[in-house]
C-alpha cells in the first residue's frame, strides 16, 4: 500500500514540475492531493504530527513571502511554492524538506544566473517545482552526509 502511495506522489510531483516549467504555475488541484497522500505515506508517524509540521512550515513561509513581497515590491515567489515546501515537510520530515528547499534555491539561483547571462534579460520567472524535486531527491539520498554540514547543532 505504501509503495502505491509513493508512486502516486511521484507521479503528481512530476506532473506539477512539468506544469510549472511550461506555465510558471502550480495548480492547487494537483498539489493539495499530495498533502493527503503524504499523511498516508508515513504510517509510523501520526498524521496529526505531520500535519502540524506542514502547517507550521506553511505559516512561516507565508510570513516570509509577504515580507519579501513588500520589501522588493513585486512577487518573490508564489503561494504554490509555499504549499509544495509544506507538503515536502509532511512527506519527508522538516529537516529533509527544508534542506531540500535550500538546495533547490541554490540550484535555481545557478539556473537564473545562467539564463540571465545567456539571454541578457532581467525579470524572468524561474519555475521552482523542478528544482524542489531535485533538491528533495539529493537531500533524501544524501541526508546522512548533509546533516552534519547544515544541521550540526541538532
Structure commentary:
The protein has six helices and no strands. The chain is mainly α and 154 residues long. The protein is globular. Helix 2 packs parallel to helix 4 (79-92). 29% of the residues are buried. It has one domain.
Per-chain topology:
Layout (H helix, E strand, L loop, with lengths): L1 H22 L4 H14 L5 H26 L6 H14 L1 H26 L9 H22 L4
Helix pairs in contact: 1-2, 1-6, 2-4, 3-4, 4-5, 4-6, 5-6
Summarize the entry for a quick read.
The protein is mainly α.
Kindly estimate the percentage of residues that lie in beta strands according to DSSP. under 5%
Estimate the helix proportion, in percent. Answer: over 70%
User: How many structural units, i.e. domains?
Assistant: 1
The number of distinct β-strands equals: 0
Radius of gyration: 16 Å
Mean pLDDT across every amino acid position = 87
Order of secondary-structure elements? HHHHHH
General form:
globular
Sheet having the most strands: none
Number of helices: 6
Q: Terminal Cα separation, in Å?
A: 33 Å
Which structural class fits the helix and strand makeup? Answer: mainly alpha
Uncertain spans, ≥5 residues at pLDDT below 50? none
What features would you highlight for this structure?
154 residues; mainly alpha; 6 helices
